[in-house]
Amino acid sequence: MERLVTIRSSRYGMDIQLSAEAPFDVLCEVLTSKFRDSSRFFKDARMAVSFSGRSLSRTEEDQILGIISENTELDIVCIVEKDEKNEQMYKSAVEQTLTNIQKKEGQFYRGTLGKRHILESESSIIILGDVEPGAKVIAKGNIVIIGALYGSVHAGAPDDRSAYIVALSMQPKKLCIGDIEAKRQIIYQESLNINGPKIAAVDGRRIYLDPLVD
User: In the chain, which residues have pLDDT < 70?
Assistant: First the structure.
């Protein structure tokens, strides 16, 4: 018989694998039992969660998060879309930023930022979605975008040059770190030469682009 629910934990978070065939209410009953029985194991950990095995609606995801909240002391800081192509980026982003989140010094935003949408953060931020043309992100800490960057971003605002910006695809209208603004054409050319997720950081008085994962 197919296992209805499998929960895997790692240093990056937790993946919940769900049967594609079983009714959703049956899966919820199994999840409730599993999390109730393992509540001592998870304790008060903070982690990201991903789902695999079947497609879930936002309502179904929220229902599962409710089950976790009711039966454990887990603090789920975000839902990460399961994508093998981007898996290494997810791991790197969560690993590099989760320490700040645990110190209440960072935040997650889930959703795509559209035209004229401005998102400001007093700390570091992970965006689970794209930053489209016309959107703007300003953060005092780092900016990690699990998606494409086409709009304007300013990390380390106003003058922290140690901050960095990460994105799967990086073709920004404007990119600033601290008090330094990148030259758009240089960033565009460097981005074309790098496959996979990219990180922008300051070296000297210029912003350089490098692969996030070697």
Answer: 1-2, 9-12, 44, 77, 81-106, 213-214
pLDDT number for residue 1: 39
Please report where in the chains the tokens 């990390």 appear, as a residue: 155
177 Cβ contact partners less than 8 Å away, ≥ 6 residues apart: 154, 155, 156, 160, 161, 163, 164, 165, 200, 201, 202, 207
CA distance 213 to 49: 22
Confirm if 99 and 68 have CB atoms less than 8 A apart: no
What angle separates helix 24-37 from helix 58-71, to the nearest 10 degrees? 30
In angstroms, rounded to a whole number, what is the distance separating the alpha carbons of residues 56 and 65? 12
What stretch of H or E contains 149?
strand 143-149
CATH architecture of 5-79: 2-Layer Sandwich (3.30)
Kindly report, residue by residue over 44-53, the tens digit of the pLDDT.
Answer: 677 778 888 8
> 85 Cβ partners below 8 Å, 6+ apart?
none
Any idea what the Cα angle at residue 57 is, between residues 89 and 128, rounded to 5°?
25
pLDDT of residue 214: 59
Architecture of the domain defined by 86-211: 3 Solenoid (2.160)
Q: What is the pLDDT of residue 15?
A: 85
Using the structure block, give the residue that is written with the tokens 């950081």. 201
